[in-house]
Design a protein that fits this description.
single chain, six-stranded parallel beta sheet, Rossmann fold, 27 helices, alpha/beta, pyruvate-formate lyase- activating enzyme, seven-stranded mixed beta sheet, 28 strands, globular
């Protein structure tokens, strides 16, 4: 609201508002926009500046998936030198050809209001995206590892925690998966508007290498580059003794919150002033890094995020799903494994909450501006009290919107609260259980009562409120016997957890540096060699970089999860959670859409062959797997790194589009395998994603059968 006065004042003084281009670089999942750029844009636009928003992650992936680029990647794959064992090259050629033919279909599926909700099409499309990244990596000849499942960007032989490696990478453009795309197309487009400042946000570690390669590229072209985001905020102290970082990558680094800081940079550059009075900055001054004072924003005064300029219809969802903020920090703020308290330690208050009336106003405003009804609340933890107050504040529209968010397993999530929150439109809550051992939970100062957790989950389930449960194995001083309590919790509570829309995971513990556990590492038996800490920008330690001397070793943790816990849990949760990636999507943006769509509807997809003898079901081929017939007459399903042999009986069973019972499956197999072996084979093929299974009595009326395209043996087709 001060913008008109400010613009007039600047004009009187001979200054003109500047253009800021704000960029979100790879790697991230292009399901939806992130919150950082629209939040900054709203603040700067209110201050009279012009802002151009660029989701370079989305744009880069779209160009990578384009027909022209895919054709070029296929040509490059075919030109790769033959090796002693040419089978790997043949697999790669087949996968590349399949991706080239289907990737546009995959993007269409994820943007379609119909196909998006067909779990077969949806899962196939996501897997085609992952294979696209595999092909791009192989075609480059550099073998960087990047993709979305999980989100990653790693360059072999380079450590993103070492400044020397980061600087050396700038001399290796082939390490940038997007070098051609940026150089030839996207960066010239970005700079065509002649921005005065380019801001790059690096919010997760997967963005470090691409983000800094972009920053270096822009600085070489003469741009004034500002870096911000959570990653380098963690290294505010380290950056002050590393002027080389600024020489290579940034004119300025904004640490902590960026609204006032970035506006100050623009105003100072418009006026020709220095940066010394602007808070939250690090920059070079006479060859030394200068740090300015720290400033904390009043979250109640922040404007509604402004997504104008972002291509909302291009994200991989059929309708916009927008992130919103209710507060910064965490209202509990004491978990010993978490580094969120460090990020917010500059504030006197651990949790700064936005007035609930303003949150409701944000929702209504974004709905009106961008035709959005689906929202991801990005806070670290939402209290039952806040959610119930928001439900009241949204009346009479409460129920017209859909939400997901993160929460703690608080006693306050009782039957009344769950029903009220669900009626508001909350589709899924993401809970951090961490461990089912009260001893371990107390050890980490989690502050929850494990005995109350099953009741909380039952109340969520009764309210049709889906949930995800995060769990971790391998905490300091956690023994294998204690860790098994978490595994047993999931085994014992399958009846309430095992619905289609709910989900869970078990991850190995990671020792983050800016946490109480790291600060107390000697007391809790976490031994960290000095060499592991001698790098410049260490966020957390890899399993091989520390020892849990009074608990389970990281190697043993990996074995327990992969070889013991998960196989047993897949058998226990065979209906909906036996597949390695879920069919009912568990990510925030996708779960809120699926949660609304399937509310009150059957979810006909299964992750194992039904056990009921009378159940009728159909198999569906995953089109992300190429299939070819060998000279011997059998078939091979092809992934990037391996093949699955399929004999003629099995081929007939899983590819003919026909509903059948288990008895009919045995008839088709004609005794080639015993019933137990046949079931195990089919369940394995479903688990790895080669085929899907759908219950006939729950399937949509207009069922679509997915059949493979069979190609010939490559032979001379290389």
């Amino acid at each position: 609201m001060l913008a008109p006065f400010k613009v007039i004042l600047l004009a009187i003084l001979g200054w003109l508002p500047l253009l800021a281009t704000l960029v979100y670089p790879p790697m991230g999942d292009p399901r939806a926009s992130q919150l950082a750029l629209p939040s900054l844009a709203a603040w700067l636009r209110r201050g009279g500046h012009t802002v151009n928003l660029v989701d370079l992650n989305l744009e880069s992936i779209q160009v990578l998936a384009s027909r022209a680029f895919q054709e070029e990647l296929s040509r490059r794959v075919r030109r790769l030198p033959a090796k002693d064992n040419d089978a790997s090259r043949q697999r790669l050629i087949r996968v590349a050809q399949n991706v080239q033919e289907r990737i546009e279909w995959a993007l269409d599926v994820l943007r379609s209001p119909v196909s998006f909700f067909d779990a077969v099409s949806h899962a196939t499309a996501r897997e085609l995206l992952e294979r696209m990244f595999n092909v791009a990596s192989a075609a480059s000849g550099f073998a960087f590892d990047f993709g979305l499942s999980p989100i990653r960007y790693d360059v072999p032989g380079f450590d993103a925690a070492r400044l020397a490696d980061l600087i050396a990478l700038q001399r290796r453009p082939e390490a940038n998966a997007f070098e051609e795309i940026w150089t030839d197309l996207l960066v010239p487009q970005m700079l065509a508007q002649a921005p005065d400042v380019v801001g790059i946000t690096i919010t997760n570690r997967q963005q470090i290498v691409p983000g800094l390669m972009l920053a270096s590229m822009l600085r070489r072209s003469g741009q004034f580059v500002v870096l911000g985001g959570a990653v380098y905020t963690k290294f505010a102290a380290q950056l002050q003794s590393r002027p080389e970082f600024f020489e290579a990558f940034a004119d300025v680094v904004v640490v902590y919150e960026g609204e006032t800081a970035l506006e100050g940079i623009l105003d100072a550059r418009a006026a020709g002033e220095d940066l010394s009075e602007i808070p939250n900055l690090l920059y070079l001054d006479s060859g030394r890094v200068k740090a300015t004072v720290t400033h904390v924003e009043n979250v109640g005064l922040l404007p509604t995020p402004d997504f104008e300029g972002l291509p909302l219809s291009s994200y991989l969802t059929p309708v916009p799903v927008l992130p919103i903020l209710t507060g910064k920090g965490c209202y509990f703020n004491r978990c010993k494994f978490c580094d969120i308290p460090y990020i917010n330690h500059v504030s006197r208050k651990a949790y700064r909450i936005r007035p609930v009336e303003k949150i409701a106003e944000d929702v209504r405003t974004l709905s009106a501006w961008f035709d959005a009804r689906h929202f991801v609340i990005t806070d670290e933890a939402l209290s039952p009290r806040l959610l119930m107050s928001l439900s009241d504040a949204l009346r009479p529209e409460s129920g017209s919107f859909n939400f997901t968010g993160y929460a703690r397993l608080e006693d306050g999530f009782n039957e009344e609260a769950c029903r009220k929150v669900a009626a508001m439109g909350m589709r899924k809550l993401f809970f951090g259980l961490e461990s089912a051992s009260q001893t371990t939970v107390d050890h980490m100062s989690k502050g929850i009562n494990i005995a109350a957790v099953p009741r909380i989950l039952r109340d969520c389930r009764a309210a049709a409120l889906d949930f995800h449960i995060f769990s971790i194995v391998g905490f300091p001083e956690e023994t294998e016997e204690v860790a098994r309590q978490t595994f047993n919790f999931f085994m014992d509570n399958a009846e309430v957890i095992g619905s289609a829309g709910s989900s869970f995971d078990i991850h190995p513990f990671g020792l983050e540096l800016r946490t109480p556990y790291f600060e107390e590492r000697e007391a809790v038996g976490a031994v960290v060699p000095i060499a592991a800490l001698e790098r410049d920008f260490v966020i957390g330690l890899r399993p091989e970089e520390w020892r849990n001397v009074r608990g389970i070793s990281p190697d043993r943790v990996a074995h327990l999860i992969d070889e013991d816990f998960l196989p047993a849990l897949r058998r226990r949760y065979r209906d909906y959670h036996a597949r390695r990636s879920p069919l009912f999507p568990s990510t925030e943006e996708y779960s809120v859409l699926y949660g609304e769509h399937y509310a009150g509807r059957a979810f006909p997809y299964r992750t194992s062959v039904p056990l009921e003898e009378t159940a009728r079901f159909s198999f569906h081929w995953n089109k992300s797997w190429p299939l070819f017939r060998t000279e011997a007459g059998d078939y091979r399903a092809v992934a990037t790194n391996f093949e699955i042999p399929i004999d003629s009986r099995l081929f007939e069973l899983i590819t003919i589009p026909h509903e059948r019972t288990w008895g009919e499956c045995l008839t088709i197999d004609a005794g080639v395998r015993s019933p137990d072996v046949l079931r195990s084979v089919l369940d394995f093929l479903i688990e790895i994603g080669l085929i899907f299974v759908m219950l006939a009595d729950e399937a949509p009326t207009a069922e679509v059968f997915y059949q493979p395209n069979i190609t010939r043996n490559l032979g001379a087709a290389q």
